[in-house]
Amino acid sequence: MRSTCFLASGLLVVATLGLATVGRAQAPARAAAAVPDAFQAKAIVALSDADMVPSAYVDDKLGPPAGTDVLSVVRFDGRRVAPVSMQTLPISNSVTGPPAAVATTPDGRYAITIETRGPRTSSSAGGTLTGLPNGRLISVVDLADLRHPRVVQQVLGPRRAVGVSVSADGTLVALAVHPAGDGTAAPLWLYRFGRGRLSGGAAVPIPDWTAGDELVTAVFHPSRPLLALTNKTKNQLLLASVQAVGAGWQLARWGNAVAIESGNLLTCFSPDGRFVFANGGPASPAPNERQHGWVLSVRLDAHPGTAAEPTHELVSRAPTGYIPEGLAVSPDGRLLVTTNLEQTFQPVGSAQRGRYASLTLLAIDPASGALTSAGDFAFDGMLPESAVFDASSRRLAVANFGHLDDLLASGSLDFWRVVGAPTGPEPLRLVKTAYALPLQRGVHTLSVVR
């Protein structure tokens, strides 16, 4: 890829200055200049689940395996479109939960992964999704040397964790645990984290929680020990502060519960911590009708100082493409993207199977939290569950699970650019670049180190 970029530069010089100056295209200063679509980040970490094809969600058939589960560490230098290196580590993981199976620490030093379902037991195309065991493995990966990442700890945690999040100070790790595993009575687990080691894992009761309800996400606030907890059974968003008590912790409700719509898949905070965004939508579309998902914007402590307890309010709702599983907010807090599965998970031969996935781009009003849609942008993709912005807030990497026409083909990281602005002569939109990085099939959760 680097030689291709160099050739393009060389042709530009020839056309402008003539053949006598072609050699100048090789000058070090020119080679170091950033190209327009360079991804401004240190690294992306990506999980790939090799055990199943997307249609297993519909027909329960795992389909042909594709190698082994891996964590890919993709390193960038901020000057090239393509990464400067990529390393893979064999780490068991699963696409079966929401795209929250890996989190990086705030300093970018470590990645922590969970295993929602265990690996398949056969190398054949047989087997069922419901037959996969509950996973328990938690892995810690040291990213200090991005050219040589290494697993530094693996522990057995609660069965069937579905999400992992790291506190703003990097000292706590939260797991959301499914009620079909060890999350029936207390679906939130907390661990201490320090010097690359997890310790003290324990279930922590959630105030006013009903045993058996599904906790689908548990996400730390970007600057304080506060968790956003999503009850998928009751369609509620809860905020709770984490308080140390002796050698353990307790949660204290922080303000009111917020009613959200059904089908929530992921939740995230705005970078300044003033808003929480939640996505979701219907899991079963009506026949011959294109269904939409949604994103909600919730303002935290909407009326400070007016009551004894904070009051959280729903301030905006915007439509998305169908099944908006991934949710990413730009570092400047002004853009939001959902990755929409559409009908790409339907079995081969199904009349419902769609050719295209999509992304939805929304503008965020940083003062009010209001969401304004810039549209849905279709692309040739399959089960795109996750996306991350770079540091510029103008580039986007999207997880593309695999290939619709070849179930054994690799997945990819697809790269997009943001064009235009919410107000101005050029409309706000997303444009897919020509570059995509092949990854192990089954890529599903991304985390970025900026």
From TrEMBL:
Q: Does the keyword Signal apply?
A: yes
Top-rank taxon of the source lineage equals Bacteria
Using the record, list the residue span of the signal peptide; answer none if the entry has no such feature.
1-20
What keywords does the record list, in alphabetical order?
Answer: Signal
Known Gene3D superfamilies for this protein?
A: YVTN repeat-like/Quinoprotein amine dehydrogenase
Question: What is the name of this protein?
Answer: WD40 repeat domain-containing protein
Q: Which organism is it from?
A: Hymenobacter polaris
Its taxonomic placement starts with: Bacteria, Pseudomonadati, Bacteroidota, Cytophagia, Cytophagales
